[in-house]
Write a structure and sequence with these properties.
globular; 359 residues; mainly beta; 49% strand; single chain
Length: 359
């Protein structure tokens, strides 16, 4: 299936807010937003039809992406840095000078490693695709998560060996917490009281007490843990271990690995099916996607080449979206059969995908 961007006009600057005009509208199952890293854009795909309906330009080096639970905003993290004291990003229209200055002060104090660098988060209003806030954070952002309460984001800083908590009401960093070397992915517990961060450099997952802003425990998992997915009830965390080709199922009540699933080589994206009986895993090193039956550990696989990368199950459609690390495209799979439904040329390398339902 070959899709193209439809009915997209040239982006317009209103003040310093970037707007994009399109005539295409979301389908019944909402949209999937795919950040394109150094292509400096986020592509928008209709979840039901798998067709591109638009693009948000001018979002620099977006790698991490999350949504607020009300479906109103996207939080995009830049995977690059500038020196502390260098020119801050331009003030978005509609934000007072005082408010903007308050969001671009020195990073919050903490015990994290300091590299003298900052980066920024873009807060994007979904209805008109406008960047309405820019929030400085202490270093390049790899991945982003937002709690179910919509009050906090957590962002990982691999260069600082830390993660930052960002208040989404005041738009400020409230804490930067040392986790472990090379923090990668993050997830919140359902009640928002814990944030879990994978540390690829020492084979652990940090359990952060959000209220106290400290690491409660570090849970040992496999070799080079990266992407995470948490069950809806918050009791089990699945962690892909890139270097040993396994997924650790962590019982968060005990802090122990309850089961290990062997999948393949150089794992990357993971996600759960809607019924949480199947775990989908991209095995970049084997050019395949695996569906793991969590009850018996059996694998079904689908060859995808080259280099399946980020992965997301699209709720309400039965589909799985998978990006390529080497080509500017995205595969669409049937989640039940793993059969290839189609391909979408996205114009860049797809990173942390977000599905926003129609509301």
């Amino acid at each position: 299936m070959r899709n193209a961007i439809q009915s997209v006009s040239r982006p317009m600057l209103v003040g310093s807010i970037l707007l994009l005009s399109t005539t295409a509208q979301a389908g019944d199952s909402g949209n999937v937003y795919v950040p394109l890293g150094t292509a400096n854009a986020i592509v928008i795909i209709d979840a039901k039809t798998s067709k591109i309906t638009g693009k948000i330009d001018g979002v620099p080096n977006a790698h991490g992406l999350a949504k607020t639970p009300d479906g109103r905003y996207l939080i995009a993290g830049r995977n690059d840095e500038r020196k502390v004291g260098s020119s801050a990003p331009q003030k978005p229209a509609g934000v007072s000078a005082d408010d903007h200055a308050a969001h671009h002060t020195k990073p919050a104090a903490g015990k994290a490693k300091s590299t003298g660098a900052v980066s920024s988060l873009s807060v994007i209003r979904i209805k008109d695709r406008a960047v309405v806030r820019l929030v400085d954070v202490p270093g390049a952002v790899h991945h982003v998560a937002v709690n179910r309460q919509g009050s906090l984001a957590v962002v990982t800083h691999p260069n600082q060996d830390a993660a930052s908590l960002v208040d989404l009401k005041a738009f400020v960093v409230v804490a930067t917490i040392a986790t472990g070397p090379l923090p990668n992915y993050a997830a919140f517990s359902p009640d928002g009281q814990h944030a879990y961060v994978s540390n690829a450099g020492n084979n652990t997952v940090s359990d952060i007490d959000v209220a106290r802003k400290i690491v409660l425990r570090n849970i040992a998992v496999g070799d080079s843990p990266e992407h995470l997915v948490l069950t809806k009830d918050g009791t089990r965390l699945f962690v892909n271990n890139v270097n040993d080709g396994t997924v650790s199922a962590v019982d968060l009540r005990t802090g122990n690995v309850a089961r290990t699933y062997r999948v393949g080589s150089s794992l990357h994206g993971i996600d759960l099916s809607a019924d949480e009986k199947t775990l989908y895993v991209a095995a970049l090193g084997d050019d395949m996607v695996a569906a793991v039956d969590l009850a018996n550990g059996k694998l079904r696989t689908m060859k995808l080449s080259p280099a399946p990368y980020h992965l997301a199950t699209i709720r309400g459609t039965g589909r799985v979206f998978v990006s390529s690390a080497q080509q500017p495209k995205l595969w669409v799979l049937d989640g039940a059969s793993l059969k290839l439904i189609g391909e979408v040329p996205i114009g860049g390398k797809g990173h942390q995908m977000v599905h926003v339902d129609v509301r």
